[in-house]
Amino acid sequence: xxxxxxxxxxxxxxxxxxxxxxxxxxxxxxxxxxxxxxxxxxxxxxxxxxxxxxxxxxxxxxxxxxxxxxxxxxxxxxxxxxxxxxxxxxxxxxxxxxxxxxxxxxxxxxxxxxxxxxxxxxxxxxxxxxxxxxxxxxxxxxxxxxxxxxxxxxxxxxxxxxxxxxxxxxx
Length: 171
What we know:
- The protein is mainly alpha-helical.
- The protein has one domain (about 20-150): Tetratricopeptide repeat domain (Serine Threonine Protein Phosphatase 5, Tetratricopeptide repeat), CATH 1.25.40.10.
- About 75% of the residues lie in helices and about 0% in strands.
- Helix 2 packs antiparallel against helix 3.
- The chain is elongated and about 65 Å long.
């Protein structure tokens, strides 16, 4: 009987520590977000790290996927395309059913296409997007990207001009 009570006490303490840790982490995140929004870029890496730590520790929370997506966006915006892709991959795998999973997969394909110029990887991401999220708002954008993947600006212009009626093409 004593063992049961001791076990219950230990579980209660552990659960209390987790919720206290989550509250503290959210307060630290809010403080860092405020600093970054006010222009203090010295807090950016710490904020990214806190977003990732929160998402990994509290992956069952509704806001965990958003926090991880924000970390991915920060990497991308700072020109760290390869890091962003790695984090996006983790986010899509950790939160496959989250609303931001579709956005993450789209962004991953876009980064491969535009920033890293890895068209085969972009195609894989875009095709996976179409398979998993065929009715998503971005599905049409992804379809267009797939259709035009690897085409030069000249090829795209020529294609657009060929689709216009002859009387609307400037002479």
